[in-house]
Structures are given as structure tokens and as C-alpha cells.
Amino acid sequence: MSLAFHINGVSLGHGDETVVRDLDLDIRPGEVLVVVGASGCGKSTLLRSLAGLLPVRGGALLADGAPITGPSPDRALVFQDDALLPWRSARRNVELPLAIRRVPRGERRRLADHWLAQVGLADHGDRRPGKLSGGMRQRVQLARTLAGEPKAILMDEPFGALDAQTRAAMQRLLVDVLRTTPATVVFITHDVDEALYLGDRVAVLGPEGVRTLIDVPEPRDPATRGTPVVRAAREEILRSLT
Amino acid sequence: MTTTLAAPARETRTESSPKRPAGRQASRWLIRAASLVTALLIWQWLTATDATLWIRFDRLPTPVEVAGQLGLLLRDPLYYLDIAQSLVRILTGFALAAVAGIAAGIAVARSRLLSDLLQPLFEVVRPIPAIALVPVAILLFPENEQGIVFITFTAAFFPILVSTRHAVRALPTVWEDAVRTMGGGRWRVLLSVVLPGALPGVFGGLSVGMGVAWICVISAEMISGDYGVGYRTWHAYTIVDYPAVLVGMITIGVLGFATAGAVELLGRRVVGDR
Ligand SMILES: Nc1ncnc2c1ncn2[C@@H]1O[C@H](COP(=O)(O)OP(=O)(O)OP(=O)(O)O)[C@@H](O)[C@H]1O
Ligand SMILES: [Mg+2]
Known about the structure:
A: alpha/beta, 2 domains, 6-stranded mixed beta sheet, B: 2 domains, globular, binds adenosine-5'-triphosphate, binds magnesium ion
């Protein structure tokens, strides 16, 4: 129920421009791998390739040993903002992946309500995205993603547009929700503290490939914040970012 | 685009006038009615006094004469037959144009091959005013009736096509990406993202299309119909029955207004508030 990614000598790009060259990275099944890196270094490009939306230029990009050739419901992509269909209510947005999987109508509704409750929006199912706050919209997106029961969740700065408080609440919610799913998570962020709070490992991406790969001591334990080991990890990430 | 612009406007309106909507609304309607009545009075005055400034009002019928004629025609079954005939023509042409225009607009916006294939054709035919196709219509179709529907269709087709194409091209890719990574295929993307996403723009095209469809159905009827409001109006002119000409024009105006309102209303129902 969780995917392993195998990235071997992969080059990625748009048009004539090659963005990532010769990238090697193994993502373990069930782990939360956080990717950080300077703006424009190709984090989103990598994520879109993992999602199957962007073909690779060269090298091998494998999900559970099979080359990634196109999108699949196994690999869900979570966007920064505005990825919900604005003409559908929150509930109907969450029902969408279920409809695509041909889940019967009644069951769809039950599951959608279940996932909305999981993200604390049980009472907001009838609202359109335009009538929800940014944090609520991201929670609906999370519910929609989880409803599809993907084996991997690819998140591209999902909390990047939120204020600090909402962001902290969303991080806690994500940690709670991820406990109940076995999915592998690849999470992109610019926030080193977020990376250290959420990740099992943190990869620092540069134009030349993965610069550093750090094992997070005591992942997802808020009590470790500010302890010397975590501070050391933080320093190391910041060093390789510059 | 239009919906995001409309939303804040609606909010400010409800906020700025929480107490006086009824009184303000009534006074606005009063002004609107007064505007129409004044226009009628000026018309009556100009025609009753046979004013000849530089333009001449001595041959134009007075509103009272027109009202009398309208009263007569309202009791004439032929009047309703003409209206029904024109409505059948315009609704047939418009419905065909809506289906074809939306389908072609999506096809051209979504497929490079279809765009290369169809776009040049559309660009060449589009500048031709639909009414200039009357000779072609006469040559192509065995009956007048089909020719008129064809001309109406052509007139409404292009605004619908162009609006649909623009609306589809302007859709953010993130919605499509989201649906594809949920495992949605081509048809799912079309039905769940492209169609509903383009709907506000499509309805803009439908409104414009309905307007030009009326222009063309009336003109076509004047040239080659044997029933219909346009034909009757032109016929009245040839037998020098000016009040009947004006009744025809007013009828066209009311019908155009009603159908435009119907499209608008349907648009609001279907698009909803986003
Ligand atoms: N659709 C596109 N077409 C062409 N070039 C693109 C496209 N998307 C991204 N690029 C280019 O690819 C490079 C990497 O972009 P990418 O979005 O992957 O960076 P990123 O690491 O996600 O940056 P950020 O942290 O700012 O989101 C950039 O130089 C960008 O200009
Ligand atoms: Mg990015």
C-alpha cells in the first residue's frame, strides 16, 4: 500500500532547457521524504515527473520497479492552492476521485463525509471552495487526496500560501492524518523547520542533483524541537542550501 | 473571469445598502419607466405635429396609430403564426449552432491537429456576414425554410465557437492535472473540468450568438421567407402599411429581448455563483 520510488540518473526539463541532470534518489516505501532547495532548482519539475505529468529526458524513474509513463491514481499530487474545482461543493470535490474509481454513489458520499470529518470539516461539505478560507481549502484538498487512497502522496508546498498559525495547525493535522495511511509522501517546502517536523528524511536539491540527504532524528515528535541533534540537522540543511 | 469580477461587486452592494433597497429599487424602476414614456411622448409630439426639421416625421405613424394596429394584429391568428414561425427558425438554428459551436470550440482549443485542420477554415468563413450567404443557401437547400435555418446557424455559430475556444484556452492547467493524477482520462477531464470550467465564457458566446441570430433570421425572412415576423414586416412595407411595419419592428424587439433574457437566466442557473 506504499510505493517505493527509484530515481536513477534522471534528467528533467522543459522545452530546450534541462533543469535537473543525472539525479539519483531512492524513496523508501512509507517514508515521508521532504525536498528542499533554492527556488527554480527543479523541485516542482521533479514532483510532476513522479506524478507522471512530465516525461523524463533520460535515466530511469521507477515506481515499485515499473517505469513511470503517465499519471496514475496511485500517485496523487497536492498543489499549493486553487486546485479544487470551484463549481463543486467541498463534498463533491472529495467525491471526485471516488467517482473516477467508479465507487457507487451512496458509498461515495459516505466516504467523502468520512474524509471531510478527518480533516475537521464535517460541517462544511456543502460549501463551495470560494466560500472557504485558504486553510480550509487545503484541508479539503487533503481530504480529496486521501479519499483516492493513493500509494504515494506528492505535495508541492501545500502550506506555502498559509499564514504561520494556520500552517502550524495544518502540519499537526497532516501528521495526524498520515498516521492512518501507509502512503509514501514526498513533500516540497521552503521551510526548514517544516521539513524537520514532517520528514523522516530531508533531501536538499541543487542543480547538480541531491546535495545532502539527512535522516531526521525522532521524526514528527514536537518535543525534539530545538534539541541539539535537531539543531545540528537544521544547521546542516541550511549550510547545503546556500 | 467575469465571475470573480462580479463577486466583490455583489458584496459591496449588499453591504452599502442594507436599509434602503426597497425605496431605492422603486425609484430606479420609476426612472426607467419615465424614460420610456418620455420617448413615446416625444415621438407622439413629433409625428402628430408633422415636424419636418431636417429629418421628416410627417410620414412616420404616430404611437397611437401603431398601438391601434397592434391591437388589431393581436386578434389576428396570422400574427401568432408569424411569431411561431420565426421562433422555430431561430431556435432550431441557434440550438444547432450551440451544439456545434461548443463542440468545435473545445476541439480547436484542445487538439493541435483539429486546430490546424479547422482553424484556417473558420478564419476564412468567419468574416463573411451570414446574410451574405443567402445566395449560397438558396443554391444548397431544396427549401427556403432550411436555408433560413442555415443562415441563422452560421450567424450564431462563430461567436459561440470563439468564446468557447477562448474560455477553454484560459482554463488553469492545475484542475486538469489534478483530475489526471486522480486517474481521470480524457473524457473525465472533458466532462468534469473543461465543460464546467468554460461554461461562463460559453454563455457569453451564447448571448452574443442569440443577438446575431435574430439579426440574420429577420433579414433572411425579409429576403426569402413566406412567413415569419421579418417577412411580414417587409411585406407591410411593400404595401405601404407603415403602422404594421412598426408593429413588426416592436415585435422583433420584444422577441429579441425575451430570448436574450432566457439565455441570461439559463446561464445564471447553470453557472451559479462560483
Ligand atoms: N512549464 C514550464 N515551462 C518551461 N519552463 C519551466 C516550466 N516550469 C518550470 N520551468 C523552469 O524550470 C525550472 C525549475 O522550475 P521548478 O518549478 O521545478 O522549480 P522549483 O524548484 O519548484 O522552484 P520554486 O521553489 O520556486 O517552486 C525553472 O528554471 C523554471 O523556469
Ligand atoms: Mg515549485
